[in-house]
Write the structure tokens for this entry.
Amino acid sequence: MKRIDVEDRVRRIAWPEPPAALRKRVLSTVRFAGAPVTWSDRVWYSRRWRVATAAAIVSAIALASMPGSDVPRFTPLTNAPVSQAIDEIGNELGLAPDLTLTLARRAMVADSNHPMRDRIDVALAIAETGRDRR
Amino acid sequence: MPSAHEIRRDRELLAALASGSPQALAELYERHVGPLFRHAFVLTRNHSDAEDLVHVVFLKLAGTGAGLLGVREPAAYVHRILHTTWIDGLRRSAAGERATCRKDDGTEKWVHSQHRSVEERIDAGRALDGLPPAQREAVLLHAVEGFSFREIGRLTGVSLFTAAGRYRVGIARLREALNRESGDQP
């Protein structure tokens, strides 16, 4: 017996039919959802609306990334780890916070070709501001 | 498998049901109760349990509300409700044996004498009865209801490959059983 024969036999099983009373039972006992469907529901569940929103976002990003665009570029904030690292090194060495900052600044100035120079500069400024607030 | 037109109609009915239309529920019932009842019967192997299961499916469907607007594949959706309701019932029952070990007390045979020959009467139904519920379900949903393995996987909460594997093993075991019974015949 081949697989197709088995499938055929399964299809020809006399499957039971639902009783007529079930229809009455379902329709008489059912409770519909209380809240009516609102306009916002229709928008939220609309596939067209979702596709249009996604397309609009992609278009905006594409326009912003084109050369000559006035929209400021997105730059990830990566200074926090540098600032934190400077603080941690200072603490480990037992240096005063001001001394740590001074040493870090000197190191940065001495190594003017450091690829992170701009970021370290900003990080130092952030660290100083934070310390002032404390 | 439902045609594109049927799917569109089902979506319209679900949208109407979300707004609380009894007519939409009645039409959805007429369109889906047959396959749902077969599915329920394959899982429970008992008429009254199958009725209860189908009843709960329509209660849940009517109570869903605006979420029905987001349904893309209505047929698979109602079968998924049935499957999850059955699983919930199993979990709630103390030993989880309500649907799997009823042979002695509540199992009803679904094969009657409507087949054409004696050989066919002995029976695909009985052979199917010997399969585990997951394999019975996969066999019914694919061979009888026409769902793809991907859809079966989605509606039973397993991967496409698991659904296909269940079907393949189920069919192989059915074939063994039918061959064995055919061999016993004079």
